[in-house]
Amino acid sequence: MFFLKRQYSHYAIAAGAGLALALLGRFVFASDILKDAGGLLMLCFLLLVPMALGAVTAHFTPPTTSRLWRTVLGPVITVMLFLATALLFHLEGMICVLLISPLFLLTSWLGAFLYVVATRNASDNNRTYAMAAFMLLPFVAAPLEAQLNTPTDSRRVENVVVIQAPAAVVWQHIIRVPAIQAHDLGPSLVDNIGFPRPVEATLSHEGVGGVRRATFERGVEFLETVDVWEPRRRLSFSIRPNTATIPPTTFDEHVTVGGRFFDVLRGTYELQPAGPCRTRLVLYSQQRLSTRLNPYAGLWTDWVMSEIQRRILEVIKRRCETVAPTPV
């Protein structure tokens, strides 16, 4: 029994050492020193810290353990411990944990694999030096990355629905959207990860210059100023978050709409004929994404925006088809 306990203690030490390194990286990159350079969205944190986590986990795992455990299973356990700790102690929100988890898993495997290959025939001292190099790399490279400019991408997300109703009916349901109940929207993963549900959209007056107030749960509101008004054809507006009504705890700082990393700039509805008493309704939005990993982050922001837009279109479709006359 003592032998078993001692054997498993190596795995606990390996996971604990990797967890300690990841937590150190989290606090260092979230500090004021690196916050202006991107903080937790820097490549050094998203890629090099988990790579070091994998190397540290592999270093403290007994060499007699299988390669599968040292390079895959061990890093997975350590990454999951770090993500669970971040959620448990409210270091990060669910959306951020979901966003970084694939990166942390893949690069932790890479770090463990590189460490095992590089130290295959090395002495104990050289293995320790290799582990130290992996550990120091994120923190040494961070000041260099801070000198780089953050790229900005413009993205467009489009959703389409065909409605069994004439354009005149559909038009009245998009310029204003009466109160939406939770059961109208149905379940969605975006609710589970913390995004507030849409509630309603009001309009100050019809025509160019009118202001739509799109409200969401938990006090989130967007001011949408109409600059294209083509009845039964096209409605387009600029979007600005009403920061006076949005509590600071509603969004994680890394996914705040209108923040330094992400913003929704415009929204457009287009109505197209699709047959007798049928309308093809297109909703698309334009966003700004400013991170050092835009192609990857864009996969997540596109999915979230598409899911929000899809649910709104489904509500409009049901309401239009409820009031629209059935064609003969």
Helix/strand layout:
Layout: H1 2-29, H2 32-35, H3 43-60, H4 67-88, H5 94-118, H6 124-145, E1 153-163, H7 167-175, H8 182-185, H9 189-192, E2 198-203, E3 211-216, E4 221-230, E5 234-241, E6 262-273, E7 279-289, H10 294-323
Antiparallel strand pairs: 1-7, 2-3, 3-4, 4-5, 5-6, 6-7
In short:
The protein has 328 residues and is an alpha+beta fold.
What features would you describe in this structure?
With 328 residues, the protein is an alpha+beta fold. It folds into 2 domains: 2-145, no CATH class; 153-323, Alpha-D-Glucose-1,6-Bisphosphate, Chain A, domain 4 (2-Layer Sandwich). Helix content is 51%, strand content 20%. The protein has 10 helices and 7 strands. The protein has helices spanning 2-29, 32-35, 43-60, 67-88, 94-118, 124-145, 167-175, 182-185, 189-192, 294-323; strands at 153-163, 198-203, 211-216, 221-230, 234-241, 262-273, 279-289. It has a 7-stranded antiparallel sheet, with helices on one face. A hairpin with a 7-residue loop joins strand 2 (198-203) and strand 3. Helix 3 (43-60) packs across helix 4 (67-88) and helix 3 runs antiparallel to helix 6 (124-145). The longest helix is centred in the last third of the chain and has 30 residues, at 294-323. The N and C termini lie far apart (81 Å). InterPro entries: START-like_dom_sf. The chain crosses the membrane at residues 40-60, 72-91, 97-117. It comes from Hymenobacter canadensis.
